[in-house]
């Protein structure tokens, strides 16, 4: 009875020993730690498996599982990369480590499980890029101080490379900025801003890899709008530009008043009196003040509008021919920002009549010549004088009238008119047979009244005589010259006069012979034939 049990025991021992030997085929392995470069090709070697049995034999089976198991496949005892053209291994996408499990089965029974950890090695396969919000258009005040931060930019690199920032010196407004710390992205204002001269700035910035051989880089254009700051003083208008047109001088305002005038608003030229803040986008309100010359409140000013009013009349324009008012315009929020100008008030005689020209069209002639300047003449070769009349003056001559050519036609540049109304032509720029129509404006500088007249200037060729009158004197009887025609007319008149004289003498002789002898005697005695003596005495007293 012992033999069967012993046989059974030995059989059991053999079976256990067989399974132990068989199970040991999955032993000998261990956790696998490996590396692989990103962007590696399909089938790239990862690691070898160190188990006792050959996979696929002796009923041994290996299996990969886990979240990243799809990135690997088994080839015998070798683990390889499972990538493709459409699915490349990218450290920036998949992360730095791929983890999977390697399980060993024997006859479908799980025997051992090992960890597979593969580090993805970085390659420089990405360029830097700017964070969009840091390169958006922005604004900067013109009052931003030099050497302070104007703005900052930020770039990233998916490979984690070190980035440095550089300003493109060829960009339009590179001179306004600089970068002191290349790795910071902080852009410093390098020189003052001025809204009045430049309102838009543009600068190009590079972001460059510093720790790579490739030195990949990218660029961004940053645009800035300069905001107006309260840094300009007020200006009276219209102002006259000086030098670079950033500074202008205030005008001299002029107004005329009469002795009879009072309690009236004055009208100035150029006017009205008005000032504006030099910071045109801010336009701070201003207040007006008369600093001097108001003659004990004879003149007052509206502090909001700058309107000046004459309160009391002037007793004598001979004693006070004019007043000079010094006017200040200052900012309401900062009285230290102000400007000053002068208003001249002239006391003049009462103006009742406007100036006028005696005729509306003047005829002028100028002969083509090489002289740089030539007087324009009129009929009879007399100097053309264009003069307006003012009935406020006894002789009609107002010394305050000035003359100017209205710059409408281009031909006005070829002529100049003096203060006395004499027209001068630039003869070297004229050609024979040209005809120019000019408009002359006469302005009373005291009253501001004006009138105008037209001048018709004809350019004559060299040697041509100036016409004597406007009545077709140039031609007479076809092609006969005016001088010849005049001579013929004089001869005819002389002949007619001689013939008339001869006829008159002959008639006189006949008349004398026919008279009564007594009448002839009376005439000889010095008496009129119809006069009868009042008495014999008187008759005898006759000589």
From TrEMBL:
Keywords: Calcium, Membrane, Repeat, Transmembrane, Transmembrane helix. GO terms for biological process: adherens junction organization; calcium-dependent cell-cell adhesion via plasma membrane cell adhesion molecules; cell migration; cell morphogenesis; cell-cell adhesion mediated by cadherin; cell-cell junction assembly; homophilic cell adhesion via plasma membrane adhesion molecules. Residues 532-543 have a biased composition (Polar residues). The chain crosses the membrane at residues 484-505. Residues 519-543 are annotated as: Disordered. GO terms for molecular function: beta-catenin binding; cadherin binding; calcium ion binding. It is found in: Membrane. InterPro entries: Cadherin (IPR039808), Cadherin-like_dom (IPR002126), Cadherin-like_sf (IPR015919), Cadherin_CS (IPR020894). Gene3D superfamilies: Cadherins (2.60.40.60). It comes from the Eukaryota. SMART domains: CA (SM00112). PANTHER family: CADHERIN-23 (PTHR24027), CADHERIN-RELATED FAMILY MEMBER 5-LIKE ISOFORM X1 (PTHR24027:SF431). This is Cadherin domain-containing protein. It comes from Pygocentrus nattereri (Red-bellied piranha).
């Amino acid at each position: 009875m012992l033999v069967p049990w012993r046989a059974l025991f030995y059989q059991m021992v053999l079976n256990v020993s067989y399974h132990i030997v068989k199970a040991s085929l999955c032993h000998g392995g261990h956790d696998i730690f490996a590396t692989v470069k990103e962007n590696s090709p399909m089938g790239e070697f990862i690691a070898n498996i160190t188990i006792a049995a050959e996979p696929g034999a002796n009923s041994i089976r290996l299996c990969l599982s886990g979240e990243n198991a799809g990135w690997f496949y088994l080839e015998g005892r070798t683990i390889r990369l499972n990538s493709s053209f459409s699915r490349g291994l990218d450290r920036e996408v998949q992360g730095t480590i791929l983890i999977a499990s390697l399980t060993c089965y024997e006859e479908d029974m799980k025997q051992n499980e090992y960890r597979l950890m593969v580090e993805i090695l970085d390659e420089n396969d990405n360029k830097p890029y700017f964070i969009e919000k840091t390169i958006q258009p922005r604004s900067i005040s013109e009052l931003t101080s030099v050497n302070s931060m104007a703005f900052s930019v930020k770039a990233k690199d998916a490979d984690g490379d070190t980035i440095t920032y550089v300003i493109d010196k060829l960009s339009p407004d590179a001179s306004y900025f600089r970068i002191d710390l290349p790795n910071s992205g902080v852009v410093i204002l390098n020189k003052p801003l001025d809204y009045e001269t430049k309102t838009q700035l543009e600068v190009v910035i590079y972001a460059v890899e510093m720790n790579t051989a490739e030195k990949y880089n990218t660029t961004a254009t940053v645009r800035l709008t300069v905001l107006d700051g309260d840094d300009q003083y007020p200006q009276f208008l219209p102002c006259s530009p000086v030098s670079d047109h950033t500074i202008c001088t205030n005008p001299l305002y002029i107004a005329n008043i009469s002795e009879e005038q009072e309690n009236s608003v004055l009208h100035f030229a150029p006017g009205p009196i008005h000032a504006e803040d030099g910071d045109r986008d801010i336009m701070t309100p201003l207040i007006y003040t008369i600093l001097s010359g108001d003659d004990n409140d004879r003149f007052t000013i509206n502090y909001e509008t700058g309107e000046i009013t004459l309160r009391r009349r002037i007793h004598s324009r001979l004693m006070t021919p004019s007043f000079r008012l010094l006017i200040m315009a200052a900012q309401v929020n900062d009285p230290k920002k102000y400007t000053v100008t002068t208003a001249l008030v002239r006391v003049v005689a009462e103006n009742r009549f406007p100036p006028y020209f005696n005729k509306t069209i003047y005829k002028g002639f100028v002969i083509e010549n090489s002289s740089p300047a030539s007087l324009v003449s009129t009929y009879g070769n007399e100097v053309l004088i264009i003069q307006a009349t003012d009935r406020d003056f006894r002789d009609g001559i107002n010394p305050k009238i000035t003359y100017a050519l209205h710059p409408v036609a281009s031909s006005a540049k070829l002529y100049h008119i003096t203060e006395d109304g004499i027209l001068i032509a630039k003869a070297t720029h004229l050609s024979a047979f040209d005809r120019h129509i000019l408009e002359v404006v006469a302005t009373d500088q005291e009253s501001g009244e004006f009138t105008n007249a037209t001048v018709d200037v004809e350019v004559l060729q060299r040697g041509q005589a100036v016409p004597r009158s406007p009545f077709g004197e140039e031609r007479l009887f076809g092609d006969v010259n005016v001088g010849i025609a005049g001579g013929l007319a004089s001869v005819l008149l002389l002949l007619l006069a001689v013939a008339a004289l001869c006829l008159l003498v002959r008639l006189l002789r006949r008349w004398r012979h026919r008279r009564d002898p007594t009448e002839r005697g009376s005439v000889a005695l010095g008496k009129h034939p119809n006069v009868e003596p009042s008495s014999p005495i008187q008759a005898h007293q006759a000589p």
